[in-house]
Structures are given as C-alpha cells and as structure tokens.
UniProtKB/TrEMBL annotation:
Coiled-coil blocks: none
GO cellular component: plasma membrane
Entries under InterPro entries matching the protein: Acid_resist_chaperone_HdeD, DUF308_memb
Pfam family for this entry, one: DUF308
Protein name: Uncharacterized membrane protein HdeD (DUF308 family)
Annotated keywords: Membrane, Transmembrane, Transmembrane helix
Length: 180
C-alpha cells in the first residue's frame, strides 16, 4: 500500500500535464498540425513516462498494465516527433488507438486499485473517458482538425481533473493511514 501512497504526485503530474495540454489545444485551435503533433507528443511522453515510473514502483498487481501503457505512451509521443508531417487522419488514428488502449489499462488498474483503497473510482473514470474519446475519434475520422483540437482539449482537461482528484484522494489516504 505504501508504494501506491508515495506515488500520489505522479498522478498529480499526469493530471496537470493533461490540463495544460487541453488548455493549449483549446487556446490555439487554428494552428497547424505540427503544433498539435508537438502538444500531443509532449503530453504522451510525460504521461507514458509517469506510467512507466509508477509501474516499476508498484507491486505485481497493476505493474504490467502500467508498464505496457507507459511504453505505448512514450512510443506514441516519439512517433509524433519523428514524423511531424503526418496527416490529420493518421494522427487521429494514433491518438484514438492510444486513448482506447491506455483507457482500458487504466480501467483495469483502477479496478485492481479498488481492492486496495475503498471506493476508489477516479482512475476508472479517467479510463472510461479515454476509451470514449478514442472510440469517438474512430467513429468520426473525417472530423476537421479544428474539431479534433477542441475534442482533444476538452478530453485532456476532463481527464486531467480526474487524475488530480485521484492524486489528492491517494495523498489524503496517505495522511489518514499515517504512511510517510
């Protein structure tokens, strides 16, 4: 339990990165695909790296899901930087599949976390939002870049809020449990 409690700040960093990413996507929706690729690449690498770090710190329960999701997040970010000229549709599919997979991984990890912390649901909410976001992108791939930027921005802000709420819940659990 101590490993999860001491890692509350990783969830906070993921949440803050998601909100910053979301605000940037909403603030400049008319910018080129290159800027969106950079925003996504930075976010995916930060999110993936924090999942990897958490995966190596946690017990066997959710380790594999966090590590796999973290590796895919970092790889998605690297792909975004290596091939910045991707078309909007190609980027849309990368983001969609990454969102669906990471969302499923977070739902599984959240269910396992519920076995450790009573009534823990924010990780599952973040995962469900991620899956819904990915599926919506797959259903409507013809959406314009402006619509994609707004959809990504709103998703990232909602997801970030869920991760920050989870981090505070885990931190408060640390305080109540007397874990240093």
């Amino acid at each position: 339990m101590g490993d999860i409690s001491r890692s509350w700040w990783l969830l906070l960093i993921r949440g803050l990165a998601a909100i910053v990413f979301g605000i940037l996507a909403l603030s400049w929706p008319g910018l080129t695909l290159l800027v969106l690729v950079v925003f996504f690449g930075v976010y995916a690498i930060v999110s993936g790296a924090s999942e990897l770090f958490a995966g190596f710190r946690h017990g066997a329960r959710s380790r594999a899901w966090l590590i796999i999701s973290g590796i895919l997040g970092v790889l998605a970010g690297i792909v975004a930087f290596v091939w910045p000229g991707l078309t909007a549709v190609a980027l849309l599919y990368i983001i969609a599949f990454w969102a669906v997979f990471s969302g499923v991984a977070e739902i599984v990890a959240g269910v396992q976390l519920r076995k450790v912390i009573d009534n823990e649901w924010m990780f599952i909410v973040g995962g469900v939002l991620s899956v819904i976001f990915g599926v919506l992108l797959l259903i409507w791939p013809g959406a314009g870049l402006l619509g994609l930027a707004w959809l990504i921005g709103v998703f990232a802000i909602l997801y970030g809020i869920a991760m920050i709420a989870l981090s505070l819940r885990v931190k408060n659990f640390t305080s109540r449990a007397g874990i240093p």
